[in-house]
From TrEMBL:
Regions crossing the membrane: 7-28, 48-67, 87-108, 143-161, 188-208, 228-248, 260-280, 321-339, 351-374, 409-430, 451-470, 476-496
InterPro entries on file: BCCT_CS, BCCT_transptr
PANTHER family reported in the protein's UniProt record: HIGH-AFFINITY CHOLINE TRANSPORT PROTEIN (PTHR30047:SF7), HIGH-AFFINITY CHOLINE TRANSPORT PROTEIN-RELATED (PTHR30047)
UniProt KW keywords: Cell membrane, Membrane, Transmembrane, Transmembrane helix, Transport
Record-level Gene Ontology MF annotations: transmembrane transporter activity
Protein name: Glycine betaine-Na(+) symporter
Organism superkingdom: Bacteria
Record-linked Pfam families: BCCT
Subcellular location: Cell membrane
GO cellular component: plasma membrane
Length: 541
């Protein structure tokens, strides 16, 4: 076992933090649950506004970057073509950033909004219906994808412009923190990132496992109990272990290809054999609502509450803030992937591509799957709301899919898709966790190291499940994400600092930034010709 390659302070730091959180929860489940729930309320109530501001600023910042001179920088050498065509690029991007949770929320999110709509709207009213089908898209839309894209900026820049592969978040903030990233500060940053990702993966597992269990229950009649959920987690770990054994490229590629085609099939099937016109009209309508209310949704915090006799719904805390935190904990990890696949694109293409294609993909899932359920509800063919009140969300999701033609077959496909989605989340998360605790990675992180983190990812949810506290984990992202707000800020600063310095000094910056030089030359030329044009102009009077 090569242990010299391991960056022990980070490895042990992450492990201590993980055990420090898990062990008390295992030893004192009831008290632990209470503490976690109070920590969540404390965070979202007191610091929720920070998450909201962060989301909005990141979005504005990325739009700025895309259209600034920094956006024209090419990630690669002059004349280099994008490494992947746009379709594969968008598909890989989507697969890296999205997991089983989209199946969960796309199908069921509208039910929550319908029953507890935002902006003081009457529950289950006509207005609530409109918000119900639009809000999900907002939470999986441009701001969310902007959060994902931000870390990709410095990382891709270092990879393909400065030609210094970066595998750690601490490396990506070197331009602002300098040499101090080589010491404890760097370790702390990496540990916090790992902690966040473990929290995010915890949320994913805690949601995905019960849904898959209900899928299997619907297919086989085996009760969706603890044993079944344990078996599912182990199955996902095994699928992942096999794919990790065959290496990143082959393993993840095969799984994400299957995912892609299965998703396309499922979406097309629901669209064609479901209420096609209703789905199209409602989705299109939602885009309008979203465009019209984008800023309102991005800033809605319901601050007045008791102070002015406003009825507080807790909507921003339970939804928007929770979501931004969840996207945030996955962001550096997705950023690493996006950066790696973006060779040959400009920063602008990478930024706009992620935000646009990412959002579009989510619009398809929410528009098709969500509005199918909504249609069933509104036409009285299936009362999802009553079913959910009686049986909980995971069973309702499966039951909605069960309303499709070829019901059993569709539930089977849906469940398989969820399993593979979950396995790919394991696969890529453990890959990144293992890379972060290595000093250097030649090709791939060490296998034992990857397997170790995959099991670490699994142990916490398993333990909590046996103690009946799986819901505790559903909000793990909120606590895990907090320190990342600062890290995101550092990442943005780092990118601006590095790219601005290079643009300024591009004359002696060789060879990968020739395009920066070209950009300066073009600008000079433009200025010159503008001046000449001015001089050539005949006198007006
Ligand atoms: N996000 C996209 O569980 C998953 O699908 C992974 C979840 C952050 C809400 C990502």
């Amino acid at each position: 076992m090569k242990t010299k390659l391991i960056d022990w302070p980070t490895f042990i730091g992450a492990l201590i933090l993980l055990l420090g959180v898990t062990l008390p929860l295992i030893l004192f489940p009831e008290a632990g649950k209470e503490v976690v729930s109070q920590a969540n309320t404390f965070m979202t109530k007191n610091f929720g506004v920070l998450y909201m501001i962060m989301g909005f600023i990141i979005f504005a910042f990325l739009v700025y970057v895309a259209f600034s001179k920094n956006g024209s920088i090419k990630l690669g050498d002059e004349g280099e073509k994008p490494e992947f065509n746009t379709f594969s690029w968008a598909a890989m991007l989507f697969a890296a950033g999205i997991g089983s949770s989209i199946l969960y929320w796309a199908v069921i999110e509208w039910v929550y909004y319908y029953q507890g709509p935002p902006f003081g709207v009457e529950p289950e009213s006509n207005e609530a219906i409109q918000w119900a089908s639009a809000y999900g898209i907002f939470h999986w839309g441009p701001i969310a994808w902007a959060i994902y894209t931000l870390p990709a900026l410095p990382i891709a820049y270092f990879y393909y412009v400065r030609k210094k592969p970066v595998l750690k978040v601490s490396e990506a903030v070197r331009p602002v923190l300098g040499k101090s990233v080589d010491g404890p500060i760097g370790n702390i940053i990496d540990v916090l990132f790992m902690f966040g990702l473990l929290g995010g993966a915890g949320t994913t597992l805690a949601l995905g496992t019960p849904m898959i269990a209900e899928g299997i229950n619907s297919l086989t009649g085996i009760p969706a109990n603890l044993g079944m959920k344990t078996a599912i987690m182990l199955l996902c770990t095994v699928i992942f272990a096999i794919s990790s054994y065959s290496g990143l490229k082959r393993g993840i590629k095969v799984l994400s290809d299957i995912n892609l085609w299965l998703s396309i099939f499922l979406l097309l099937f629901i669209f064609i054999f479901g209420p096609t016109r209703f789905i199209s009209e409602t989705t299109f309508n939602s885009l309008g609502i979203l465009a019209d209310n984008f800023f309102k949704m991005a800033t809605w915090m319901e601050p007045f509450g008791d102070l002015a006799n406003f009825e507080e719904t807790g909507f921003p805390e339970s939804w928007t803030i929770f979501y931004w935190a969840w996207w945030l904990v996955y962001a550096p990890f997705v950023g690493l992937f996006v950066a790696r696949i973006s060779r040959g694109r400009t920063i602008r293409q990478m930024v706009l591509g992620t935000m646009v294609y990412g959002t579009l993909g989510c619009v398809l899932f929410f528009g098709i799957m969500g509005n199918f359920g909504l249609y069933m509800q509104l036409t009285g063919q299936f009362d999802a709301i009553a079913f959910m009140d009686a049986n909980g969300a995971p069973a309702t999701i499966i039951e909605i899919i069960h309303q499709l033609p070829l019901a059993k077959f569709m539930v089977l496909l849906f469940t398989i898709l969820a399993i593979i989605f979950l396995a790919t989340t394991f696969d890529s998360s453990s890959y990144i966790l293992a890379s972060v605790v290595q000093k250097s990675v030649e090709g791939e992180p060490l296998r034992w190291n990857r397997l170790f983190w995959a099991f670490a990812l699994c142990v916490m949810p398993l333990a909590l499940m046996f103690l009946g506290g799986l819901d505790t984990l559903q909000t793990a992202s909120i606590v895990g994400g907090f320190p990342l707000i600062i890290i995101m800020f550092l990442l943005a600063w780092s990118f601006m600092r590095a790219s601005n310095t290079d643009i300024r000094e591009s004359d002696d910056y060789e060879p990968s930034t020739i395009h920066i030089k070209r950009w300066r030359e073009r600008k000079k030329k433009k200025k010159r010709s503008a001046l000449e044009a001015l001089e050539d102009k005949p006198d007006q009077d």
